[in-house]
Amino acid sequence: MSNFQNPWGKGGKYWPGWDENPWKVGEDGLMKYEGKNSTNNNGEAIEPTITTRLLFYGGAKKLGDNSAFYFASKNVNFDYGGTGKSYFASSAKFIIEKINSQEVNSILSLDVFTHGSPTAWYIVKNKKTNEPGSIYATIPDEDVESNNLYASKTAQLFESWGGGNEQGVINSFNFLNFAKNVIVEIHGCRGADNTLYFVDNMVTNISQYLYSNGKTQGVAIGHLERANPEINGVGNTSNEEQDYRHGPRAIFHNGEILFKTNKSGRIPETIISTYLNQKEKEGDSFDGTIQEY
């Protein structure tokens, strides 16, 4: 994992007024934020004035794919009691800025509904109009411009190949803005699957960044294979019922598998807590690869 670089320049829109890079590499080799603290002078966690749940959907060139991501995001937000803030994923830059604009310790959950792979969330826009995709129109192939969000600088180097100027890397997130027990779920394809070269996947890296920035109960969830929205079976799922929370998924904590599941629907927070407690109790002998919910 590489140290953070401000991709939009000193004093730019990203975090205005920055003169120095506040992200440093710790003794464990992981990035840590040394700017704004998540604790007060007494070492107590700063309580946010408001908490939030963030959902990002879309980013595809085809209207049908964006529609599926939209309905899936609505079903997840329904499980949150409609309390989540839902946004169209117009670019990596947009997602990064939205996350980093939240209060410290305030993000209870992050759900992302885009096309993806182990190393990226794929987000495109129309390079002629500079408009993102939508649920109403498909972007012509010749006008597609990628502004993906990558698992690492290495992944971006290997995969970006002439993308737009709103690409990004997940180490640009201000991870202090997440709650200590945040749940991040990637609903697109293969977010927790093995990569084809010497980089970690999205879920591994996110879970490590969370832990190294004090979010010790935070987890990241991703699919182990291709995902599809037909939760009730092919041909048996209406548009309104579309949901990617089925099939083999892995739950990661601090860069390691905490447990796996084939169950459909939302993974209860109580179940996640049970496995976290088991991991803490068993220590080095804990093996999440054999834990199945």
Task: Kindly summarize this structure in a few lines.
The protein has 293 residues and is α/β, with parallel strands linked by helices. It has 5 helices and 16 strands.
Could you give the order of the helices and strands? EEEHEHEEEEEEEHEEHEEEH
Overall geometry? globular
In terms of per-residue confidence, which ranges show pLDDT below 50 for 5 or more consecutive residues?
1-23, 28-35
Mean of residue pLDDT values: 87
Please report the total strand number as a whole number.
Answer: 16
Assess the beta-strand content as a share of residues: 15-25%
Helix share bin:
10-25%
What does this structure look like?
The chain is built from 5 helices and 16 strands. The N terminus is likely disordered. It has one domain. The strands form 4 sheets. Strands 4-3-5-13-14-15-16 form a 7-stranded mixed β-sheet, sandwiched between helices. Strands 6-7-11-12 form a 4-stranded mixed β-sheet. The protein is 20% helix and 23% strand. With 293 residues, it is α/β, with parallel strands linked by helices. Strand 15 and strand 16 form a beta hairpin.
